[in-house]
Write a structure and sequence with these properties.
Order of helices and strands of chain A: EEEEEEEEE
Structural class of chain B: mainly beta
Radius of gyration of chain A: 13 Å
Distance between the termini of chain B: 40 Å
Distance between the termini of chain A: 28 Å
Number of strands of chain B: 11
Oligomer: heterodimer
Strand content of chain A: over 45%
Structural class of chain A: mainly beta
Largest sheet of chain B: 7 strands, mixed
Radius of gyration of chain B: 13 Å
Order of helices and strands of chain B: EEEEEEEEEEE
Number of helices of chain A: 0
Strand content of chain B: over 45%
Helix content of chain B: under 10%
Shape of chain A: globular
Number of helices of chain B: 0
Helix content of chain A: under 10%
Amino acid sequence: QSVLTQPPSASGTPGQRVTISCSGSSSNIGDNYVYWYQQLPGTAPKLLIYRNNQRPSGVPDRFSGSKSGTSASLAISGLRSEDEAEYYCAAWDDSLSGWVFGGGTKLTVL
Amino acid sequence: EVQLVESGGNLVQPGGSLRLSCAASGFTFSSYAMGWVRQAPGKGLEWVSTISGGAGSTYYADSVKGRFTISRDKSKNTLYLQMISLRAEDTAVYSCAKQGGGGPYDAFDIWGQGTMVTVSS
């Protein structure tokens, strides 16, 4: 059981916009930044969004993040086949004094 | 180019010990917090431990506290994870990751490919 809650799966067709939610509590998302990672099959995770809504250089602007209260969302617009991957949210947890991850959302591009 | 290369993973019996290493290059190793994150087969990401830059404060997940020790050798640009009293549930790919700043709250921005630890008799 992960501290941050994500839907196990999401799907969309090419060109569509999909969103992935991440729900936490006041000790993690409510009080700290949210980060999103993309993990393509067989590869290391890649930082996709940092500090709620910032994109590292090289990440397309099709990816965007937002946060409200104790929840956050990752939106992917103009869906492409290469976006098929596992997506994880993460945040520092003040009560645990450590990092917590969501359980991951497997995105399928139909 | 920033690079992280883990080593030391192996098959070990329950109750055994293992030390993982992570060789870092391409950045000022001593300035950044570093962490270990593991992923059990077919499962999600689980944070294990972080060591801050500078003074080197350490942080551990409850699941490994008292059994795992994170450390760094700044002269060798190497991060370590000493693991004792290993359990079957510690079986996972262990990846080291550079954090975005010196503090433990900064994101994991660069990841290694990982090293497999299997705990089984």
